[in-house]
């Protein structure tokens, strides 16, 4: 049986299911967001946005169609990763143990069922891994070092490796969801990559698909989620409705009016709205407000002169002012990156001695001195240095059009480099063109932040040094820098357990390579954008309780974001105002309760005064927002 993508037909079916009525019935009354009034009771529904900029794709977890919550609310992982503790937490698995130098035994929880009533067993896990033998499956690389998967019994598996990559294996366990064998085995392996599953996936998670259309996807709570009995966890919202991201002004107003609960968007000026009624919650209650989630880095194409020269790149590092970007572009919502690029969660690995010897800070005079010492001089007097052959050159720094913060950051970086005598122009181009240029090496300079929060610094160094350089670089080493020694160390790091003394030694050696080679120049830490309203739901995760960030980004489910859904609690809704509730910071107009606001404005046609907030178009905080 061959599956094909028929999204319009599926979407039409979902819309009919959502707002069905007979020919004799009037159309269902909808609110300003296109939702049937009372279909999603406000006190039982969590409204989110910031992860989708278009209608849901296909519902195939293997091809990552981009459906918010598909992997996390629906399909689940063997383990979750505790960011604060830096440790794996059993989830679908009960335990995992290295029983030999290259042998790992995995035990699954008993009593887990798929949403169609079939039992979740070791066969499902083994089948999921076997899918990786098909070219094009995102996790196919695991078979470069995984030799065999053996089903020992219904709940036990034994994995045998040609090379025991401890760090890489831990990463795999919380980033790859398990699929049901009895559903997927109906398709040939190649069909799993080319086909689209229907909108009612068979899952183990706490939610199933309720409906979807061009503007949103709705999830509804399932009965019998295994974690309720096994772990005492119960997700609180009955419905989760993820909206296709509207404009930033709409998002802000929806939050402060209580029509939206969680926004995972870059939203400058959020400091003005974390007090008031209802207050907004951010991870920190003061700048930078957002937890660091990835490192934004200036990427030089090292196949082009003079960017192929580490000394030239070092001069660039001294020329760029991260503080200017933090303050002027982000208003303190982000922080400067450490010279190694390692995230703050890995602070214990920073080697102060190496940073003192080989690190860099913003010091324009040092940048000029380094350029001169390396032989880059302005012989023609135009204000810009020539390359070592005495030829003038100019460089383009590209970022995606519409990513307003990155556009401003690129202009700041280019201005700093020009001040140091390096001829650089910042340009905004279509996001797809940036992706293509980055993959194919057709660029001079760009900004990228694919080095993100994971279980291990190993992922950061893989991002910097991954070899061999391919025609299309898709997962890292976009600078195309070739250092065999650094890549060999990175591969060794993946095999070493975190409690092995050699682990720290390798990280220190790799930090030295990163600072001396500078295949990428760390500039700032991009935030895990997250603003939550306390109008309808409260108890959002914050730094004070050490919980995972309040985010619906895909990878955050593997970090335990599902626990957020078990920790928030509903606030009693008021149908009548007990007194005027004003916008924070003196904004105009009283606010009604969230429920009455949604229905009254639709029925009476009364206009609502809106907060004026024009910081430019938003970009999402998941895939696009971190590129």
TrEMBL record:
<dbReference type="GO" id="GO:1904680">
    <property type="term" value="F:peptide transmembrane transporter activity"/>
</dbReference>
<dbReference type="InterPro" id="IPR000914">
    <property type="entry name" value="SBP_5_dom"/>
</dbReference>
<feature type="region of interest" description="Disordered">
    <location>
        <begin position="573"/>
        <end position="627"/>
    </location>
</feature>
<dbReference type="Pfam" id="PF00496">
    <property type="entry name" value="SBP_bac_5"/>
</dbReference>
<feature type="signal peptide">
    <location>
        <begin position="1"/>
        <end position="19"/>
    </location>
</feature>
<dbReference type="InterPro" id="IPR039424">
    <property type="entry name" value="SBP_5"/>
</dbReference>
<dbReference type="GO" id="GO:0015833">
    <property type="term" value="P:peptide transport"/>
</dbReference>
<protein>
    <submittedName>
        <fullName>Peptide/nickel transport system substrate-binding protein</fullName>
    </submittedName>
</protein>
<feature type="compositionally biased region" description="Basic residues">
    <location>
        <begin position="597"/>
        <end position="612"/>
    </location>
</feature>
<keyword id="KW-0732">Signal</keyword>
<feature type="domain" description="Solute-binding protein family 5">
    <location>
        <begin position="88"/>
        <end position="463"/>
    </location>
</feature>
